[in-house]
Specification:
Elements lengths: L6 H13 L6 H20 L8 H13 L11 E4 L7 H7 L5 E4 L3 H13 L5 E4 L7 H4 L3 E6 L4 H8 L3 E11 L4 H10 L2 E10 L5 E9 L8
Parallel strand pairs: 1-2, 1-4, 2-3, 4-5
Antiparallel strand pairs: 5-7, 6-7
Helix pairs in contact: 1-3, 2-4, 2-5
Length: 223
């Protein structure tokens, strides 16, 4: 298990971060390398992602998660719904190990993988919760300063995120730019406002977008 990034891999992450307008320090690169090593090892036995090549994981998935860096709050918790193989929640924790990051994953095997990452990197402020998002409201309801989601359709994600959102917190949906109209429509239905849209490109030119929402009503609206 290779727990370090080589020079070319480090340069890929630095280039990807620079395109997104952020910098990534040596300690974060080291944590990402350890995470990638565990992901690669588990990927040999279990299908955690569609891609298994380290270069593709770096360019398509890890760089994509780096875009959240400027949006991270000064304090947590940050809740990542449907964490899967760790995108974007584990990458967020690698960038900001001081933040409480809650990785919500319903599938047991992927939750076990995330727990192994938490131990190996290590990421002491990460909490892996093997449950559906609906089932963590009792503990984490109205506490999240930031809620992220990458693997879910936006019409699934917003209703799951809303009960977890703290006053003044933000929900960030990682989508494609063509979802903007749908995002604004769903926001209004859920008592949210679409306050920011950030289009960006991955290193291979793939178009992506962040949609940032805030609550405009004190009451949780059914979406």
């Amino acid at each position: 298990m290779v727990l370090r990034l080589d020079e070319a891999e480090q340069q890929t992450l630095r280039e990807g971060a620079a395109r997104l307008g952020i910098t990534i320090d040596e300690a974060s690169l080291d944590r990402v390398g350890r995470y990638l090593g565990v992901l690669e090892l588990w990927g040999r036995r279990f299908r955690l992602t569609g891609e298994r090549a380290r270069s593709v994981l770096l360019r398509k998935h890890i760089v994509d998660a780096l875009v959240l860096g400027p949006l991270l709050p000064t304090s947590g918790p940050v809740i990542d719904i449907g964490s899967g193989a760790g995108f974007p929640g584990v990458v967020v924790a690698c960038l900001r190990p001081d933040l409480v990051v809650v990785l919500v994953e319903a599938r047991r095997r992927k939750a076990s993988f995330l727990a192994e990452v938490q131990r190996t990197v290590p990421l002491p402020e990460v909490h892996v919760v093997n449950a559906r998002a609906e089932d963590v409201v009792a503990e984490w309801g109205r506490r999240a300063r930031l809620i992220t989601g990458r693997a879910l359709r936006i019409e699934q994600f917003l209703p799951l995120a809303l009960p977890l959102l703290a006053p003044g917190g933000e929900i960030v949906a990682m989508q494609t730019p063509r979802q903007r109209g749908r995002a604004a429509e769903l926001a209004a239905r859920c008592g949210l406002a679409l306050v920011r849209t950030r289009p960006y490109e991955l290193l291979d030119g793939e178009s992506r977008a962040l949609f940032v929402f805030r609550r405009v009503s004190r009451e949780t609206s059914p979406c």
